[in-house]
Write a structure and sequence with these properties.
single chain, about 280 residues, alpha+beta, Fumarylacetoacetate hydrolase, domain 2, 2 domains, eleven-stranded mixed sheet, four-stranded antiparallel sheet, about 20% helix, about 35% strand, globular
């Protein structure tokens, strides 16, 4: 089952997709009026299962305009969780490579703030590269959807747009390399966490003028740390009353001679969730 956020003449609403059928969650109960209300519940996944019979009474027909699957949540990110990411960070950093090696091996993970909700774009909306950066790449990632209580309740696809030239110049420039308008995309929907199984295969393809200029695949099984560990560290000494999204790192890194161009199309597919597509501006 997937939760999705869509817009209509009345504003933004939540929908539920089950076996190819779509239903209006807003019409089912008030606690599903927005992502914040849902993530504030004691057990958001169980709540969806309990409301499913009623939700089937409110089918959605025709196409709906999907929006990014968040409303006011912050987006955080995990760094250097894949070996390939560690190697890339070391290669790009003139004098700070050892820091990334230490982070990969350390007990404490690297967690950093990525975006406020109003800077996040959804499927089909444009992502951006910085004008003051000469080396820019997308970072395809599995994103955890965490409830206000810190429970992993679902998964979505994330694109952590990054300036490798700015971060490589000095690791302390990480916020400027990572945080700017249009630097994060999420979507298309939220796959509910039912049981212990998590999405695995991640595939990214970048098309330029109709032709593929880069393609790569990885698996979430290559993440060094348990996903629950990343979530637990994020909730140490911080509260997220509306829930929060946590990117889990990237294992797909284009070669050093590659940089994004305006007009490129970035398509990220994660098994079980779908495909997130964005044009670069």
């Amino acid at each position: 089952m997937q939760i999705f956020r869509f817009h209509c003449p009345q504003g933004f609403r939540l929908g539920l997709e089950v076996d190819g059928e779509r239903f209006d969650l807003n019409a089912s109960a008030r606690e599903f009026s927005d992502i914040s209300s849902w993530l504030a519940l004691a057990d958001p996944v169980a709540a969806i299962h309990s409301i499913l019979p009623r939700a089937r009474s409110f089918p959605l027909t025709g196409e709906v305009g999907l929006a990014a699957p968040l409303d006011v949540q912050e987006v955080w990110a995990s760094g250097v969780t894949y070996l390939r990411s560690k190697i890339a960070r070391i290669e790009e950093s003139a004098g700070g490579g050892d820091f990334y090696d230490l982070v990969y091996q350390a007990e404490r993970p690297e967690l950093f703030f990525k975006s406020m909700a109003h800077r996040v774009v959804g499927n089909g909306q444009p992502v951006r590269i910085r004008r003051d950066s000469a080396w820019n790449v997308p970072e395809p990632e599995l994103a955890l959807v965490l409830s206000a209580a810190g429970m992993i309740v679902g998964y979505t696809i994330g694109n952590d747009m990054s300036s490798r030239s700015i971060e490589g110049e000095n690791p302390l420039y990480l916020p400027q390399a990572k945080v700017y308008d249009g630097s994060c995309s999420l979507g298309p929907g939220i796959l509910l966490r039912d049981g212990d199984e998590i999405p695995r295969d991640i595939h990214m393809i970048i098309n330029r003028q109709g032709s593929a200029v880069f393609e790569g695949t990885t698996s979430t099984t290559r993440i060094r740390r348990p996903l629950t560990e990343l979530a637990d560290y994020l909730f140490r000494e911080m509260t997220f009353s509306n829930g929060v999204f946590l990117l889990t790192g990237t294992g797909i890194v284009p070669p050093d001679d590659f940089t994004l161009h305006p007009g490129d199309k970035v398509s990220i597919t994660i098994e079980g969730i779908g495909t997130l597509e964005n044009i670069v501006e």
